[in-house]
Design a protein that fits this description.
- By secondary structure, this protein is an all-alpha fold.
- Helices cover about 75% and strands about 0% of the residues.
- It is built from 15 helices and no strands.
- The longest helix has about 40 residues.
- The N terminus is likely disordered.
Length: about 400
């Protein structure tokens, strides 16, 4: 019975990770499907009420939420790896340094050759901070999390109150740059790489100001949750899950609606509202999915999502390959030609295909394609995928 409970707990984590992959794809695909999002510009070709509604739904319920879930689970799994290394009596730090180094290389190649921006290299760099803080007390970790959000509130709030950021915006220039980016994404492989490299400074600014600090905060929350086994022995009937849903959905959707009203146009106040409330909506998603997966009729949701989460790294990279082949000039060249609703539909279709492929792969192997390589780097051994019996 205990083995069954343990396996269910692991599948919960994998299923949550698989769910996060869908949200990440819905966001990332927009930066391949069009050159306008990276420049915070509205595409004049897609301004119907339906197009605006899709943007509003994504900004309210998806944007800035799912990378937090992915980051939280990274911190949670990090703690489980620490404890596994301690039980095995092996050196954790050298293994993790190799793992983070491998992740950084994969992320760098991913950002240059496959997509604008990357989360893997961010995880590798901030993972070094997490590695250095792995022995801090829970209280200290939570104080750091609170300090991070206090800093964001003060810095971004001051900007919103005392600085007219509209003076730095050039709508006409942004539209022109967006058309150029769209054309380059539809061009040769060299043009595509050029666009990816050109976007790195802007992405680095986002990393320093918002994404980096919030990722570290989510890492630390995951670390504390892993120590306390907060995702273990879940039954779905816990009152705290319902409380998280109530508070999380109210606060998270409110902040998401504020962000949807102006965040896409560079409104610092709207972005701050999303930054501060996104963790609440993310937590509500987690609580909801856990309750569903532990219901009699919802157990299949766990079974469907878990294999995709088991090979999350492979699927994350695979999403970039798929979107590149669909939208850019080295594939079908549909960049700038697909509406927001169609783009979201393509994202769901890609993820559905990945779920099927993940089931097929994980039914035969113990690790995903890229996971096997990263595991070999971590352990300083030859790659192996351990065929299942």
């Amino acid at each position: 019975m205990s083995q069954v409970l343990s396996r269910t707990r692991i599948q919960d984590i994998d299923a949550l990770r698989g769910f996060a992959l869908l949200g990440i794809l819905v966001v990332n695909i927009t930066f391949v499907a069009s050159g306008f999002p990276i420049h915070l510009a509205d595409d004049p070709a897609y301004q119907s009420w339906l197009d605006q509604a899709v943007h509003w739904v994504s900004a309210t319920f998806v944007d800035m939420k799912f990378y937090l879930l992915f980051s939280f689970l990274f911190g949670y799994s990090f703690q489980l790896q620490i404890e596994a290394a301690q039980r095995a009596g092996t050196g954790f730090k050298p293994r993790m340094l190799r793992r983070l180094g491998g992740l950084f290389v994969i992320g760098g190649l991913h950002a240059i050759f496959l997509i604008t921006g990357d989360i893997l290299s961010v995880y590798a760099l901030i993972g070094l901070v997490l590695l250095a803080m792995r022995r801090v007390k829970d209280r200290t970790a939570l104080i750091v999390v609170g300090s991070i959000y206090a800093y964001l509130f003060v810095s971004m709030g001051s900007t919103a109150l005392f600085m007219d950021t509209s003076a730095f915006l050039d709508p006409a220039g942004a539209v022109a740059a967006a058309h150029e980016t769209t054309a380059n994404l539809g061009g040769s492989f060299g043009d595509i790489i050029g666009e990816h490299v050109k976007a790195l400074p802007l992405y680095g600014l986002s990393l320093l100001t918002v994404q980096g600090p919030t990722t570290l905060a989510a890492f630390l929350l995951g670390l504390v949750a892993g120590r306390r086994r907060l995702l273990a022995n879940i039954t779905g009937k816990e009152a705290v899950l319902r409380l998280i849903q109530l508070v999380g959905f109210v606060a998270g959707i409110t902040g998401g609606m504020i962000y949807a009203s102006g965040g896409g146009n560079g409104d610092t106040g709207a972005v701050l509202a999303s930054v501060l409330t996104a963790p609440f909506l993310t937590a509500a998603y987690v609580a909801t999915l856990l309750r569903v997966m532990h219901s009699v009729k919802g157990q299949d949701v766990r079974r469907v999502l878990a294999p995709a989460g088991q090979m999350a790294l492979s699927n994350y990279l695979g999403q970039s390959v798929a979107t590149m082949l669909i939208f850019t000039g080295i594939g079908l060249g549909l960049v700038g030609q697909v509406s927001p609703l169609e783009t979201m539909g393509i994202a769901v279709a890609i993820f559905a295909g990945q779920v099927v492929l993940s089931h097929l792969w994980m039914s035969r192997y113990g690790y995903g394609p890229v996971e096997g390589v990263l595991r070999a780097v971590t352990n300083a051994t030859a790659p192996t995928w351990q065929r299942r019996v």
